[in-house]
Specification:
This protein is of the alpha+beta class and 504 residues long. It has 21 helices and ten strands. Strand 8 (409-418) and strand 9 form a beta hairpin.
Length: 504
């Protein structure tokens, strides 16, 4: 649902003028020969009246016709005007959060002067931290997924219907895995695709894309032949998802080059979800999770073996866990993926879901150092110039992480690996569960004494651990010291005020 800027501004002006004139909705409606409900629709930006009605409204409000219909606002409202006109606001998916755009914007336009000042502050913060529109839309998608606990029954059902329909026809109904060749055949025979796995790797400009689609009557899917077979299986399963679900507005490249709308992001996520279900059917994954959680002691072998069982990457597997565990096991989790480039001291959080409300050190400051005690950081393999063999064992780890200040504890599990298209880049992916009584009832190996227990913090700049307590500190605790100095000054001022009051 789009936002009609002209309607919104007109409705806001009418409401302002009515309040200034001391008129109720009923008063103005009666003078203009309109129903109060229709006038409400006007003020909310949903309706725009005919010219003859506007003439009557202007007269009743003591305003000039041209002033009322002008889309220009007072200078004090210029930030509100620019916000309403911005593509970010106009593209924001209000309806996905149960709101109509006019309803949401109405919250701002009730007190437009204050709203303008608030938006000005937000814009300045966005500029200060260089927030991009794409980041804003991705944050909206994460919020949408988190409020649904990342579980979408319609997509689960659609994928299972697809497998029941196509399984007998293509001979994978009783197979433990759908072969890569079968997925390619479905795209070719059912949806008219041609598949090219040679071109991307030969182009210097395109060789880092995983896939590129050229749409048309006969779509052409280009796949990078440097990918592992398990990565190609996901690309094909996701592509089938776009077709089977009828998703038109979508990304044409992977990784996504441009984001044109929230619907594009949502459709990309829906197709990926569908592909994940096809590769990792719900019933099988839930049975494997029950067996894994029932282990009396931590054992990395069954955990790692699921990568082979489903022929997927660590990110695919753990993200599938994030879709099923909250819904079927009843406890929330967080999902984190970090990247680390060779020769740098930077660790970048590139993907996350935070149903745990974890203190994720991603937005605390652009120049702070993530705590090096996090499992996500420890699992990152040392980047190398060579390609990691497909059969090589991946770094796998477990850790009970306890936040120093809150004493909140999380069981974290994950993998590390090198990125196949970027040999100088390493990646880690983990899921984490908040430890409580319910978790102990489900995960039997939770109290295994061999699981490392590590005290963690948010960033080095905020951490009070001494060098004797932490040997992996990457930066001095500058923010912590600044806070302590501020507290000391405040206490000194309080003492000074006390002495002045008592006359000492």
């Amino acid at each position: 649902m789009g936002i009609d800027l002209i309607n919104i501004i007109f409705g806001m002006k009418v409401r302002q003028a009515r309040l200034e004139a001391g008129l109720t909705l009923s008063d103005l409606a009666r003078q203009c020969e309109l129903s109060p409900s229709y006038l409400t629709e006007i003020e909310k930006g949903r309706k725009y009246p005919r010219a003859d009605k506007i003439v009557k409204m202007a007269a009743a409000l003591g305003k000039e016709y041209d002033d009322l219909v002008s889309i220009k606002l007072a200078s004090s409202l210029r930030y509100l005007e620019s916000a309403l006109a911005s593509s970010t606001v106009r593209r924001f998916p209000f309806e996905e959060f149960g709101l109509e755009p006019a309803d949401a914007l109405g919250l701002l336009t009730r007190e437009p002067d204050r709203a303008s000042a608030l938006l000005h502050a937000i814009i300045e913060i966005s500029r200060r931290y260089d927030l991009k529109e794409d980041e804003f839309l991705r944050a909206a998608l994460r919020s949408y997924q988190e409020i649904h606990e990342n579980y979408f029954p319609d997509l689960e059902d659609a994928a299972e219907t697809f497998m029941a329909e196509f399984g007998p026809r293509y001979g994978f109904d009783d197979a433990p895995l759908i072969p890569l060749a079968t997925l390619a055949s479905i795209l070719r025979q059912e949806y008219g695709y041609t598949i090219d796995d040679k071109t991307l790797a030969t182009s210097e400009e395109l060789r880092n894309y995983r896939s590129v689609l050229q749409p048309g009557r006969r779509p052409q899917l280009f796949i990078n032949d440097r990918l592992y077979a398990r990565q190609v299986r996901f690309i094909l399963a996701r592509e089938i998802g776009y077709c089977y679900l009828g998703l038109k507005e979508r990304s044409l490249t992977s990784t996504t080059e441009e984001i044109d709308s929230f619907q594009q992001l949502l459709n990309d996520a829906r197709a990926a979800y569908f592909g994940g279900v096809v590769l990792m059917p719900r019933a099988r994954v839930l049975a494997d999770l029950e067996d894994f959680f029932a282990l009396p002691a931590w054992d990395p072998e069954p955990f790692s073996a699921m990568l082979t069982t489903y022929d997927v990457t660590p990110e695919m597997l753990l993200y599938r866990f994030s879709e099923l565990i909250p819904q079927f096991f009843g406890f929330k989790l967080h999902f984190l993926r970090f990247h680390h480039a060779a020769g740098t001291d930077e660790y970048q959080l590139v993907r996350h879901l935070n149903m745990n409300q974890l203190l994720v050190p991603s937005g605390i400051g652009l120049f702070e150092h993530h705590c090096r005690r996090w499992l996500s950081i420890r699992l990152l393999p040392k980047p190398s110039a060579g390609r990691q063999a497909s059969s090589s064992p991946l770094p796998v780890g477990v850790q009970i992480s306890e936040f120093l200040e809150t004493q909140e504890k999380f069981l974290c599990l994950g993998f590390g690996r090198q990125m196949v298209l970027s040999p100088g880049l390493s990646s880690s992916v983990i899921i984490g569960f908040r430890i409580d009584a319910d978790l102990r009832k489900t995960i039997r190996f939770l109290d295994d004494p061999d699981i490392p227990h590590t005290i963690i913090h948010e960033t080095c700049e905020r951490c009070p651990l001494t060098p004797d307590q932490c040997d992996v500190r990457a930066a001095p605790p500058t923010i912590l010291h600044a806070r302590r100095e501020k507290l000391a000054r405040k206490m000194a001022l309080n003492q000074l005020n006390t002495r002045s009051t008592t006359g000492d």
